[in-house]
Amino acid sequence: MGKVIAVANQKGGVGKTTTAVNLAASLAAAEQPTLLIDIDPQANASSGLGINSQKMTRTIYEVIVDGISPTDAALKTDLAFLEVIPSHINLVGAEIEMIDVPHRERVLTKALESMRKKYTYIIIDCPPSLGLLTLNALTAADSILIPVQCEYYALEGLGQLLNTISIVKKHLNQTLDIEGVLLTMYDSRLRLSNQVSSEVRRYFGDKVFETVITRNVRLSEAPSHGKPVLLYDALSIGTKNYIDLATEILRRDGNMTEAPANDPPVPATQGRAAFPAGPVAPPPAPASVPTTENGGVAGEPTVDAPRHDVSNDVPSAKLGQNR
Ligand SMILES: Nc1ncnc2c1ncn2[C@@H]1O[C@H](COP(=O)(O)OP(=O)(O)OP(=O)(O)O)[C@@H](O)[C@H]1O
Ligand SMILES: [Mg+2]
Q1: Which CATH number do you get for residue 174?
Q2: Looking at residues 55-80, what average pLDDT do you find?
């Protein structure tokens, strides 16, 4: 049975789409049959994979509102193990169109029932809101992956998100788990990034992924070429970061085939160059180490974290007041 992971945070621009697209591509490159579902009316994940869905008549909109089969809406991509159900701007109206639909939070759950058998991973890119679309994703998901941008006000709104998760768990999806909190757009040169990182780790503990996504210009360029980063620049730090994230998830799920112990170690650059060239299995990555854009090891934060206890007031935690 496939695992459904919703990439969600109602805060805008924190790296949800970048993470959904590149995690899905990295899982697919590891030969895991993967489906990416774009449930955001902005359709950034769709365009990021080179799909212009605006003239399409079989998108996630038709799946949710008209009840067409998701199999009919799934498109092939440049990666053999990756398929995508694109979004459409019409989805903006879905909330209103579904007002009379009974159990409207469970529409996606029902639609995905048949899809779980076909894929090992189903990754859902959510919109920046906690409305009906995100609610559908959280109800259908086994887990939520929460990207947190290493920037000002990083933790703002997380309390509201955690509250929504507990409401969903209580009323809609008892088994919803937190897959992990992912630090994104990390820059080890910035005191602020280090402050956010240590504060998030202090609050969420081992729920924070070991892998950290560094700020990398290749990650922001790749969507305009309609490609996940591993097909755009195989040697970029962004490619390495998302392969590390996929590896962390695969290992945890017991889906990672370890190389025999007597295999010679693969040099990092050689391995990365070979891995994304096609839909082939990645070399076993070492435990992930946050690196700077220039390839330096970022390591644990070395600066004093602000004396601000977020445990009582996550929603109002504002980091980076003192750079
Ligand atoms: N690690 C990164 N390094 C550099 N740029 C990044 C990185 N991650 C994301 N970006 C850029 O930051 C912007 C916001 O990222 P993204 O679209 O993934 O966020 P989002 O949370 O999906 O936004 P929205 O809430 O609007 O859906 C994009 O321009 C993206 O290319
Ligand atoms: Mg997005």
Answers
A1: 3.40.50.300
A2: 96
Could you count the other beta carbons within 10 Å of the beta carbon of residue 295? 11
Better-scored residue on pLDDT, 246 or 297:
246
Distance 184 CA to ligand 1 centre (A): 9
- Residues 136 and 64: beta-carbon distance below 8 Å: yes
Cβ 142 under 6 angstroms from ligand 1: no
Count of the separate structural domains present in the chain: 1
Instruction: Give the predicted TM-score (pTM) of the model.
Output: 0.83
User: From the CA of 11, how far away is ligand 2's center (Å)?
Assistant: 10
Task: Look at residue 93 and tell me if it is in a domain.
Answer: yes
As a whole number of Å, the CA-based R_g of the chain is: 19
Q: Cα separation of 89 and 91, whole Å?
A: 5
Identity at 251, one-letter amino acid code: R
Instruction: Determine the structural domain holding residue 45 and report its residue range.
Output: 3-316
Q: Which residues pair with 183 in a beta bridge?
A: 148
Answer yes or no: is the C-beta of 149 below 6 A from any ligand 1 atom: no
**Cα 222 to ligand 2 centroid, rounded to whole Å:** 14
Residue 33 in domain = yes
DSSP code string of 185-213? SB-TT-HHHHHHHHHHHHHHGGGB-S---
